[in-house]
Amino acid sequence: MKIIECVPNFSEGCDLDKIESIARVLKSFPDVHFIDYGGDSDHNRSVFTFLGKPEHVLEAALAASGKALELIDMRSQTGVHPRLGAVDVVPFIPLGKTKMADAVDLAHLFGQQLYERFSVPVYYYGEAALVPERRELANVRHGGYEALKDKMNNPDSLPDVGKSDFNPRSGATAVGARELLVAYNINLNCSDLRLAQKIASLIREKNGGLKHVRAIGVILKSRNLAQVSMNLTNCKETPLKMIYEQVEKLAAERGVEILESELIGLAPKCAFAGTKPEKLKFLKFDKDRLLETHLKNL
After folding, report:
1. DSSP, res 13
2. Range(s) within the chain of domains with CATH label 3.30.990.10
3. Active site residues per annotation
4. What gap in Å lies between CA 113 and CA 136, rounded to an integer?
5. Residue pLDDT, tens place only, 202-260
6. CA–CA separation, 170 vs 121, rounded Å?
7. Comparing C-alpha atoms, which of 201, 193, 179, 178 is closest to residue 247?
């Protein structure tokens, strides 16, 4: 059976009514296995996770994106997380017997239909990238929403799909195909933004840190806590234990402890190699956070 996982990120994490409205759209698709969703007021974004056959996932993703575009106005959106638009990023992940080429085709089809239905320009990233420099999502989102108007007027950074007409309400969308990714945050028991940023820079792969780790340091204003926010692109080579211990070590050298950590969405079992979830001070964790639990149900 061909299965696609889709994990769209929308630029709304404060208004629970809007988040629930998007969730209701996804719940209305009986052939899609809707797994998880949640919003974060500090990052001001919500993340939804669902699985299914490619054709069903495509329609559910378009419908949810349409609802998000109806509800979210980027002109009044703020948050600590980088973003391009109301529908910020929509990745497609091949599971089961699905090949990466299938996920790429689906990403390209989604991007075309997103523009045709809602006039939102699209940048392709990851395996779906049409421009080599856009394989890394961070490169696509460089400068964020605030720099998008100038970016879209630059001949070297035009969207892959759609006219380069900047719509301040909706912005643009990054659409990609990629392997499994683990979104993982560690909250430090302090409010030192510079410390979180320093630790993030030291563990980041591109700075010579841990392989497959993308990291930024942010402040959670609602809790007055510093956070190291990470994306892990290969948890087989770099499991969570390795990241946790490195952050713990770097924080301890500066007299700070880890308060807690959290998963955003799902993680495969291999992410926990050499440890147990309780050793990582998770805010909440149960078997429903494991990808394999849901694949078994399918």
Report:
1. -
2. 2-177
3. 81
4. 23
5. 999 999 999 999 999 999 999 999 999 999 999 999 999 999 999 999 999 999 999 99
6. 9
7. 201
Q: Give the residue carrying structure tokens 């080579």.
A: 237
Q: Where does 182-297 sit in CATH, by number?
A: 3.30.70.670
| CB-based contact 6:175 (threshold 8 Å) | no
Decide if 272 contacts 239 (C-beta within 8 A).
yes
pLDDT tens, residue by residue, 48-66: 999 999 999 999 999 999 9
Q: How far apart are the first and last CA of the chain?
A: 9
Structure tokens that stand for 263 in this block: 């998963």
Residues 6 or more apart in contact with residue 16 via CB below 8 angstroms: 39
Q: Which homologous superfamily does the CATH classification assign to the domain defined by 2-177?
A: Formiminotransferase, N-terminal subdomain (3.30.990.10)
Residues spanned by CATH 3.30.70.670 within the chain?
182-297
Whether pTM > 0.90 for this model: the answer is: yes
